[in-house]
Amino acid sequence: MSQLFDSNPLRTVSRRTVLKMFGVGAVGGAIGYSRFSKPEPAVFQKDKGDLPQFLSTPLSVTVVGGGLAGLACAYELSKRGFVVTLLEKAPQLGGKIASWPIEVNGSKMMMEHGFHGFFPQYYNLKSMVAELGIEQNFLSLDSYTVAYKTGDYAPEVFRPSSSAFPWNVADLALSSSNRLRWGLNLTKKEHWEVFREISGFHAQKSFQRLDHLSVAEWVNDDFPKGLYDLYFLPFAKSSLNAPDMLSAGELMQFFHFYFFGNPEGLAFNGTKQDMGRSLVQPIARAIERNGGKIYTDATVTDVQWQDRQVKSISYRVGQNRSQVPFWVDANDHLNHLSHSTLIASASLDDGQLEGLISSSDRSGLSGSGDDNSDTASNSNSYVFYGAGDDVYAAMPDAKEALSLTCTHQGCSVHMEADGNFHCPCHGAMFDSSGKVVRGPAERDLDKFDVVSHQGEKLQLVAQIDQNDRHKSKARPIAEQVELDPEANEIQALETDYYVLAADVPGIRHLFSIASGDPEATIVSQVEELAIADPFAVCRFWLDRDFPWTQSDFTSLSGYSLTDSITLYHHIQDDYKAWAAETGGSVVELHAYCYKEKEFPTQQALLATFEQELYEVVPELKDASILHRELVNQKNFSGFPPNSYANRPETITAAANLFFAGDWVKMPFPCGLMERAVSSGFLAANAIIHQQSLQRRTLYTVMPEGVLSVVT
């Protein structure tokens, strides 16, 4: 892979040649040089010569997916003269960085999927931010802390750096209060092998050695305990994959990108407002200025294949509930809970309710009514499908299923002893048929027809009430525009190129509804894509502030659920203003990859989040919760053992089809938001290259570890 890169002067000669000429001594020279001269970013795939930048004859591209990957791809292609149509299923753009309006006790605010940090080595994302001229939308958080629940370790504080490996490790050791607790002994063979892996990352060789192991399996063999507790466990979970489900090879790539191959340090930026206003909308506006069309609430109804290529994509805009059949898997964790366990987990005593339910939502929620044996029996007979905040309930052999997604803000409702469905987030209640009994929800739970039942899977299609087919908005971004009635009709796009940039559940769905003759090799790759354990975010609005000595975003380790805490009233302008006006605070807790069997309901999530908030910030025990928002989804990309070899790449076996998304196999180290953006640019570059245009220059950290020459 190294031949694809141009970097600083040390990389103008191939690594093999350096070894032949100078042997291991060259490594020592490079190490010494990296102490005094900060390495420049490595350059990937830079075209030589003077190729044209823009199309001479317009060509068309359809991009499916309006997350960072799809937006980056559409942005680059629209700049080059391609006619781009971007389709996004959700009401808002952004995918995992989307934001949407909420109301907090009469104040309008914006909610997100959770805090996102912009690390300094996000070179490709930063280059787009610079091109858009929106650097002022970001602020530096200066430092990044990892705090531990147990008293065994002092907090670790990471700051900006100017040195590459191994000096960044040396600097960390000097500044760390835990350096004597690392437990690393390089005279032990097993510990030397660990050090070799983390400092000698080489994509092909590292995955060959480690991809068959989970992180949990890898660290089982005499791994330095301090290193695991201090760094490997919290950073592995921040990849949004649990250690027992994450390939050790992927973790090495993650560590190399974020630390060992990164000379920038681990401090990062946040956004001054929500991600929508700070980043998503500026990208979308640029696409529209370049002539691109963007549709939200756009449901793809067919991906038609012909002659081993995509012939067309059909879609409908303006219907919230898709009439396209889709498959959902049985939720084993909910189904294995007995009815008595469900009731026990939902029926909290008054003390628990006082802490769990916000003051504005308390009325009536604690009264569950008389037990109804018929409805209790019914609840025990339900079979549950889906996960996160996308759960469905159906009786065995029933022709109809009920969505358990609250129509207010998307939390999952739960049937309690009175036979009604209660929303744990804001107190809405629905009767056993799904009709609204109490707000703030205004619309009944959605119903679905059962199309097919195969083993542990159910195929559903939405029931559409003809009197409720309100026209949604196919926004251009600047404003919401009402569609003409015919906008609900199915539209077909036949374009020169297609880029599928949906998340893993989305890309699976696109292939499940495909017609014609989809390329078999691509189908098999997509079928093998994994989804990580679910994540959850709970944001609390409280009536008071509190002292805090750690960073405004702090990773947490050792708690049963919570992996980080963010003080929004210290970061985003709207939240700062709210706190100044009310004297309160806004705190967000994030669980990166929790186990469903441990937290099978959103009530369990909320109760645990609140309990752990008070453990992290004891000063808030007597505070009143004015409002809270829960986000709970299962759509992050999974990177389990043995998944690397067959992971889809940007270029597919279909000449006019390309993939983008953080699940795509990348040819250089990157992670999270930078991985999504880079994958979008790679897809754009692949199309641009076919048209003999100058590709966008992409950047990364040092592509291989310093000690890769001895691995």
Please characterize this protein's 3D structure.
The longest helix has 19 residues, at 672-690. The protein has four domains: 54-106 and 117-134 and 268-320 and 478-530 and 646-693, FAD/NAD(P)-binding domain; 160-260; 326-468, Rieske Iron-sulfur Protein (3-layer Sandwich), CATH 2.102.10.10; 534-633, Polyamine Oxidase, Chain A, domain 2 (Alpha-Beta Complex). It is α+β, with helices and mostly antiparallel strands and 711 residues long. Residues 1-30, 338-379 and 466-486 have low confidence and may be disordered. The strands form nine sheets. It has a seven-stranded mixed sheet with strand order 9-8-28-29-30-27-31, with helices on both faces. Strands 14-23-22-17-16-15 form a six-stranded antiparallel sheet. Strands 11-4-3-25-33 form a five-stranded parallel sheet, with helices on one face. 29% of the residues lie in helices and 22% in strands.
